[in-house]
Amino acid sequence: MAGPFGVGSEGALAVVADATGVPFFLSEPGRGDDAVLADVPDSWAMSSLHTTDIDAAASFYGTMFGWELDSVPDAGFALWRLSGEIVAVVSATDGVAVPPHWSVNFAVRDADALAEHAVTLGGTIVLAPMNTPGFRNAVIGDPQGAFIAVSAPAG
């Protein structure tokens, strides 16, 4: 019998919210949907939390998953680490201009070309390609309203 998310007893899935109200998805490892490719072009690069309360989020995710917050001076964001490895990024938002949310970022070869291609496919440019230390980034939306960030090595 399927549960509320269409999954039976073979694995648990849940959509929950953190202490600041930002929803996220939980899944048990070993379900066959684990990421197997990361940090190469056209694959997952990182996930980022945009929150109005970094301290509350740090306490929640630290207690829930054992993540440790690591400041990055003058970067506008901090890193969450688990056993020394980066697992996510967190940045502050006012909650108005940018609503609190989790975002996913994909590694790409050319952020400018990908953003242009997204527009030809009916997508939108939410944040035009811009330079950040070491990367060229953009945020694009698909025709259904979902958004992703893309990052290419600065070159």
Describe this structure in words.
By secondary structure, the chain is mainly beta. It is 14% helix and 43% strand. Strands 4-5-6-3-7-10-9-8 form an 8-stranded mixed β-sheet, with helices on one face. Strand 1 (13-17) and strand 2 form a beta hairpin. The longest helix is centred in the middle third of the chain and has 12 residues, at 54-65. It is globular. The protein starts with 12 loop residues before the first strand and ends with a strand. 13% of the residues are buried. Mean pLDDT is 84; it is low at 1-10.
Q: Which class of secondary structure composition applies to the elements?
A: mainly beta
Summed over residues and divided by their number, the pLDDT gives a mean of 84
Order of helices and strands: EEEHEEEEHEEE
Measured between the Cα atoms of the first and last residue, the distance is: 52 Å
Main pleated-sheet profile: 8 strands, mixed
Biggest sheet, spatial arrangement of strands: 4-5-6-3-7-10-9-8
Would you count the extended β strands for me? 10
Tally of helical runs: 2
